[in-house]
Amino acid sequence: MRSRRQNRPSCRRRTPAAFRPGDTLRLGNPSRLIDEATPPLTINPMMHTDLIERLHATPWRGVLAITGGGSGAIERLLTVPGASATVLEAVVPYCQTALADWLDETPARACDERTARQMAMCGFERARRLAPDADPRTLFGVGCTASLASSRPKRGDHRAHIAVQTAGRTLLVTLQFEKGRRSRADEEGATAHTVVATLAQIAGVHQLDLTKTPPGIEASVEDVAAPAEWVELLLGERDVVTLHHAPAPRGVAVCLFPGSFNPPHAGHAAIARHAAERTGRPVVLELSITNVDKAPLDYIELTRRTHALAGQPLWLTQTPTFAQKAELAPGAVFAVGADTIERIGQGRYYADDAARDAALQSLAERGCRFLVFGRMADDQFAGLDHLALPPALRALCDGVPETDFRVDVSSSEIRSS
């Protein structure tokens, strides 16, 4: 007869010190979660005090953004003396418009682990602006989005996603609550409790332990410690990281293929092959961790995308504009879609028309050109000849005719399917 201990599901865990750069940790069990910050059935208001005092005594400072569920963590942090040493700012972007304003975009789903990670990254970037003289390696951003019990029955799961972003790490904790087992107040308390515990884990005064979760709560943890080169890239201390045997920047003339590759698909591979044949140059994929429209990519997201592009020469950069890309790759041919070249010509991405013309002039002076691939738009194929571009931009472009290349697939369609 097996003992109760033998019947327990095993939950092996490496401590953060054992993580290798880029490691991902996934842990989850229907009856496991977090020790000193274990979400109890009812939260004792005094339960966090010692933990929060230790947190306030560390050099860590940052910004919290919590969409509603879990916002009790803000109160707990602020009511323990010493909060000014830890909290630079705390916001509750409760409505959809407020959340979109915080993220600088409307998320596909409000309660989603990707949204929580984006919120945390926005918080980290905000902390850097609020504390410009601080060591950025001691700053954090917290993002929490939750869908908890409410006055109306919910078809989806009751869940919470808590993310913490630092210069060197992205940590994500997801809670899933058994419906009907806890009140809104209890689910809120458990979420707030976990926010504090996750932040304390980052600060080194607490260790998440998935062996003491109350019944009815499932938990998973994903934790990526970034390689030093990724940290330097995020902090602006370097401009490129080369992967998968990619050539060094400012070296050989390349065909640079920028994109989000979220996810990569057969169309990307076909464009790379055609661009190599057309230009006679090595094709290097380029993934910028920053975007003119969005928050930087976090380390969980970067790990997923670089793994999906394994084996293909790749640059990770912090160059959201093509003028910046041209500085890394003078003389490059940029392989782009018709939608991208159209955006390059739009005035909304520049201070004014003069700034746009100056950017295009810098591309010409560096000997860069665009190889433009058509794509479907409104059920019609749109190639270079279908676009109304500024003359200075059109002069830098060569189009690939539909008879030579056409692939009717996009990453956005794959994500929405």
From TrEMBL:
**Pfam families, per this entry?**
CTP_transf_like
Q: Which domain of life is it from?
A: Bacteria
Look up the signal peptide feature and give its range.
none
Source organism of this protein record? Botrimarina colliarenosi
Q: What is this protein called?
A: Nicotinic acid mononucleotide adenylyltransferase
Cellular component GO terms held in the UniProt record:
cytoplasm
Cite the entry's keywords alphabetically. Answer: Nucleotidyltransferase, Transferase
Region of interest called Disordered, as start-end residue ranges on this chain: 1-33
Name the InterPro entries for this protein.
CinA-like_C, Cyt_trans-like, Rossmann-like_a/b/a_fold
Bias (Basic residues) ranges = 1-15
* One Gene Ontology term of the molecular function aspect: ATP hydrolysis activity
Q: Which ranges carry the Cytidyltransferase-like domain? A: 256-415
